[in-house]
From TrEMBL, chain A:
Name under which the protein is recorded: DUF6285 domain-containing protein
Pfam families: DUF6285 (PF19802)
Start and end residues of each DUF6285 domain: 24-114
From TrEMBL, chain B:
Organism: Craurococcus roseus
Protein name per its UniProtKB record: Phosphotransferase family protein
The organism's taxonomic lineage, starting at the top: Bacteria, Pseudomonadati, Pseudomonadota, Alphaproteobacteria, Acetobacterales
InterPro entries documented for this protein: ACAD10_11_N, AGP_Transferase, Aminoglycoside_PTrfase, Kinase-like_dom_sf
Annotated PANTHER family: AMINOGLYCOSIDE PHOSPHOTRANSFERASE-RELATED-RELATED, BLR2944 PROTEIN
Aminoglycoside phosphotransferase domain sequence ranges: 28-275
One Pfam family hit: APH
């Protein structure tokens, strides 16, 4: 229905042009900014491909809040953690850790996949 | 800086130095949103000298204290034997150049973290440089409260560890974005917070990237604007935190082994390093940097400053959160 290449494909190709064809011609003083632009395009492309549904489903199950919006879920979990309800030794500790790890892996897969290297 | 301002500056410097100062050249080294650094080549009484003039941007004229505070800190550090550019003159009036400024000698060297870490890695780590960093920290930590010349600093905290947790929670609440992973890290810190001990001057941003190195030696410790009284292990933790290793394998700032840093620090300070406390402050450092990074992104998101670098800084938060989860054992829970 929609024309191809899609948004992610265009970003990928445009980023290639920036890095391979434009960057070598830029003065040294502008290369840092060009690399930032390339980095922003890569993050945007990965963000389009990411699927937050499994991490959100795990949070909803953890907090027994099947219809809560993402921000409400995070607020609830943040408050529980601060009050000690998810401390080691509590029944919900391991499940909270797993949910946080899954959420953070998802966020890293968009913002900086290299950060996933050492985290199994 | 226009011709008239430069002429006023030369006159002011001549009076401050008690000898004729002529400005041969001035070049902007780096312009941030808040500060400007100018490289100045001058002659003082006929002899050439190389200086840096540090000033506020016109946009932040209202804040005159920070430059004078930084000057006072540099003077205290210089007096304690820390390798800092010698602070020369400070002007808190706006009439000379349009903003308060101070002048210090210009140090030679490389500060860029990636470059220094790559150089150290090429020789399998640089224990001598790591040890030199330990001696710099020991000299900084020889400055203890009370100090009349540092009266602009907040009073020493009774309990630096608890104070840290309280302040970071307040910052998270003020920002308004729920961050359960940072809460997880703060709660972990709170459960294991070390009792109060020595209180010393902390640089509070002592990390690779904020000191200069020339031919393997530290030539300047830079960026004193976060200095505060605190637990000496806080500076060691900030330097050793995974987020400040620039991808390097070596735990002391990506430069060398922790043992070289600790041993030199202990020898120079006469204070035992408590590795457990350093680890506590390493997790604290990771959280503190995440809170700062999120705040920088917020400056962009709020529309106050539309800026790509600030926007991208927000995307550092997830990897810092991964560090927090790793350091708190959540990956194995």
């Amino acid at each position: 229905m929609l024309e191809r290449p899609d948004a992610a494909g265009l970003l990928e190709t445009a980023r290639d042009v920036l890095l391979r064809e434009l960057l070598p011609h830029l003065p040294e003083s502008k290369r840092f900014e060009a690399r930032m632009v390339a980095n922003a395009m890569a993050i945007a492309r990965r963000g389009m491909a990411a699927d937050a549904a499994p991490a959100l489903a795990r949070l909803r199950a953890l907090l027994d809040a099947p219809h809560a919006e993402p921000d409400a879920l995070l607020n609830l979990l943040a408050a529980e953690i601060r009050s000690g309800e998810r401390d080691p030794g509590t029944p919900g500790h391991a499940a909270a850790a797993k949910a946080l790890v899954e959420l953070t892996r998802l966020r890293c897969s968009i913002s900086n996949p290299r950060a996933l290297g050492g985290s199994r | 800086m226009d011709e008239a301002a430069r002429a006023r500056l030369a006159d002011w410097l001549t009076a401050a130095a008690g000898a004729p100062v002529e400005i041969a050249s001035m070049a902007l080294l780096s312009g941030g949103a808040v500060q400007q650094n100018w490289a100045m080549d001058v002659s003082r009484g006929g002899a050439p000298e190389r200086w840096v003039l540090r000033t506020d941007n016109a946009a932040v004229l209202a804040v005159s204290l920070p430059r004078t505070a930084e000057f006072a800190l540099l003077r205290a550090a210089f007096g304690a034997g820390v390798t800092v550019p010698e602070p020369l003159f400070c002007c808190d009036a706006r009439e000379v150049t349009g903003a308060p400024f101070f002048v210090m000698r210009r140090a030679e060297g490389v500060a860029r973290g990636h470059v220094l870490v790559r150089q150290a890695a090429a020789s399998g780590g640089d224990p001598a440089l790591a040890a030199a960093l330990g001696r710099e920290l020991a000299a900084i930590h020889s400055i203890r409260p009370p100090r009349d010349d540092l009266a602009m600093l907040a009073p020493p905290p009774d309990d630096p560890a608890r104070d840290f947790v309280v302040k970071q929670r307040a910052a998270l609440d003020a920002a308004g974005t729920p961050r359960p992973v940072l809460e997880w890290g703060l709660r972990h810190l709170e459960r294991g917070s070390p009792p109060p001990g020595d209180v010393v001057l902390n640089h509070n941003d002592f990390r690779t990237g904020n000191y200069m190195v020339h031919e393997g030696r530290v030539t300047a410790v830079l960026d004193w604007e976060f200095a505060a009284w605190g637990d000496p292990h806080a500076d060691l933790g900030w330097l050793c935190a995974p987020c400040w290793r620039f991808g390097g394998a070596h735990e002391a700032g990506g430069i060398g082994p922790r043992s070289a840093l600790y041993e030199a620090y202990e020898a120079a300070s006469g204070r035992r390093v408590d590795p457990g406390r350093v680890h506590w402050w390493e997790l604290a450092a990771t959280i503190r940097w995440a809170v700062i990074a999120a705040d920088q992104a917020e400056r962009h998101l709020s529309g106050r400053e539309n800026n790509l670098e600030l926007a991208l800084t927000g995307h550092i938060v997830p990897e810092l959160e991964m560090d927090v989860l790793r350091m708190t054992g959540a990956l194995d829970a």
